[in-house]
Specification:
two-stranded antiparallel sheet; mainly alpha; 5 strands; rod-shaped; 17 helices; single chain
């Protein structure tokens, strides 16, 4: 009897003769062909080189159940046959279930209940080929999201989130999906749902999902209402800031136009040492039209005392604001500029702080927005 020497690799004895005839087991497949740079020179992230025929073979293996060793029990007595090795490799959670099943039963069996049989079938099929039909995804996206979360299949979970984000999320199902996203630890999806709820709050409040959530999860409903109130307040604050910015830009434009009128003259009003030409080009300062009317009224009004006439009061305020923005009142041709400079020294601390804040906001707004954009409607408010 011939004795065959053995070589021990780990704990399994392997004969020398067999080791010579059997090629070594292939290691992890590396797609070196796809590595490097793409056509445009950017680094590639890697692509699948699996052919359609290979994917079809995996799906046929699932459909035909060839040598299946696991039965998946579903609702209504349904059974789906599968292969333990494939399920275990694709889902760590299923690997644990299969280990427990093999301890207590001869025939491996796991149960997936509470989900339609067809949804479970789509889920198991994805574990084989990573494929799904568009119609099936649209019909079972909620169930597939739950299954992918419970059985730790991140690829399918990402696909479900992506499909919901790009078309399958509606005002009718957004409340249900929002609750599901919170349970399934899908922060991006929950954020998208939250934004949709706030954006379409009145419509969402009338849906069946909202009414059910109000009864089953009153705390969550209260949270959403409070979020809506906060968002509404933020929106009002944004509108308020935009309106304030428009006012500050209007005031800055008025200051520029005021200097222009008293220094160069404009249309029918200006300094006494300059003659006006007929057919002048349109003024580039939009605020001039309103200011000309205001200056003419200020020059001829008999109630010029501050507080006597609302239009004169407005003119006094503009002149004082100019004096605070003017860098050199000795050469400035705007009336009362030097007088207001002297008057500033005698003002109360409260008035001084108020004016300084106004000047700071005007200059800050000008720096942020660049060249001011003043509509004719805003200019007309100078005269109102």
């Amino acid at each position: 009897m011939c004795k065959v020497d053995t070589i021990h690799e780990g704990s399994a004895p392997v004969s020398k003769e067999v080791s010579r005839t059997i090629p070594p087991w292939p290691g992890p497949v590396t797609n070196n062909f796809h590595k490097g740079l793409s056509i445009d020179g950017s680094p590639q992230r890697g692509y699948s080189c699996v052919s359609t025929a290979t994917k079809d073979s995996w799906e046929r293996l699932f459909d035909e159940g060839y040598r299946a060793d696991v039965s998946v029990d579903t609702d209504d007595g349904g059974i789906i046959y599968a292969h333990a090795n494939i399920l275990g490799m694709a889902s760590p959670a299923m690997k644990g279930l299969l280990k427990q099943s093999s301890r207590f039963r001869r025939q491996r069996s796991i149960s997936i209940l509470g989900v339609p049989h067809d949804a479970v079938r789509v889920f198991i099929r994805f574990l084989y080929s990573s494929c799904y039909e568009k119609r099936e995804m649209e019909e079972f996206v909620v169930h597939l999201l739950v299954l992918s979360h419970v059985y730790l299949v991140p690829q399918l979970k990402q696909e479900c989130e992506k499909k919901l984000e790009h078309g399958l999320l509606t005002t009718e199902n957004v409340v249900d999906i929002f609750q599901l996203a919170l349970l399934c630890d899908a922060p991006r999806l929950s954020l998208i749902c939250h934004r949709m709820i706030l954006k379409n709050f009145k419509t969402v409040c009338t849906t069946t999902g909202w009414k059910v959530m109000k009864k089953s999860h009153p705390a969550l409903e209260k949270e959403l209402v409070e979020s809506m109130i906060e968002e509404d307040n933020r929106q009002k604050e944004r509108i308020k800031k935009v309106n304030e910015r428009k006012i500050y830009l209007l005031l800055y434009e008025a200051m520029e136009a005021l200097v222009h009128i008293y220094k160069d003259g404009c249309q029918t009003i200006g300094p006494s040492d300059k003659d006006f030409k007929e057919n002048q080009a349109p003024c580039k300062y939009v605020a001039c039209k309103g200011l000309e009317l205001l200056v003419r009224h200020f020059a001829g009004c008999k109630l010029r005392v501050p507080g006597g006439c609302i239009h004169c009061k407005r003119m006094w305020q503009l002149l004082e604001l100019h004096s605070r923005l003017c860098a050199n009142s000795h050469t400035c041709r705007v009336p009362l500029c030097r007088n207001f400079k002297e008057r500033i020294k005698k003002q109360s601390k409260k008035d001084e702080i108020r004016w300084k804040m106004l000047v700071k906001k005007i200059l800050t707004t000008k720096r942020i927005t660049g060249a001011p954009f003043i509509s004719s409607a805003m200019v007309s408010s100078l005269w109102q």
